[in-house]
Design goal:
Layout: H1 9-14, E1 18-25, H2 30-43, E2 45-51, H3 60-66, H4 69-72, E3 75-78, H5 81-90, E4 94-98, E5 105-106, E6 117-121, H6 130-133, E7 138-141, H7 153-167
Parallel strand pairs: 1-2, 1-6, 2-3, 4-6, 4-7, 5-7
């Protein structure tokens, strides 16, 4: 049976998180940014890194979809996604881009055992930039079987966080 117990912001900040950092690479839609905040809260991701032109709180449009998650989720802004990933690598993070690209592996085939991990999600139109992909240890693709070959970035983040956080240990 599911629990209806909701954590306060203070309690949320005190509980252990999954060793997962979500990185947004120049995501333009503030509604998408807010939705990713909320998804990070739901799966207890360690933190969110907003890179490049990605909007940052406080912002009315972000708050509209974040529903307060900007207060619970630890976040930071980095002017350069490449530099943010270099810093994460230096701290021992395994870097995974979510993108349709040569050499990608399907999400179902990704044997997640690398901890900690940074998940990189790209711009709504252009995806993850080529120079950012070069910093990644793996490229993961979500298979799609319809007429479109892309998912909304916030939907994509929800799918991947469900999969990765389901396999990681909160710690």
């Amino acid at each position: 049976m599911a629990s209806d117990t909701r954590l306060s912001v203070a309690d949320y900040q005190a509980v252990p998180k999954h060793p997962v950092v979500v990185v947004l690479d120049s995501v333009r839609s503030l509604n998408n940014v807010g939705s990713v905040f909320r998804t990070c809260d739901a799966f207890r991701a360690e933190r969110l890194v907003l890179c490049g032109v990605t909007g940052t709180p406080p912002d009315r449009e972000i708050e509209k979809t974040a529903l307060g998650a900007t207060q619970s989720v630890k976040w930071e802004h980095a002017p350069s996604t490449v530099e943010a990933l270099k810093a994460l690598k230096a701290k021992g993070y395994y870097i995974a881009a979510i993108e349709q690209a040569p050499g990608s592996i399907l999400l179902a085939d990704f044997n997640y055992q690398q901890q900690p991990i940074a998940l990189v999600f790209g711009n709504e139109v252009y995806g993850v930039e080529a120079e950012v992909l070069q910093q990644c240890d793996v490229i993961i693709e979500i298979p799609q079987h319809g007429t479109k070959q892309s998912l909304n970035v916030s939907v994509c983040a929800g799918i991947v966080l469900w999969e990765v956080c389901g396999k990681s240990k909160i710690g």
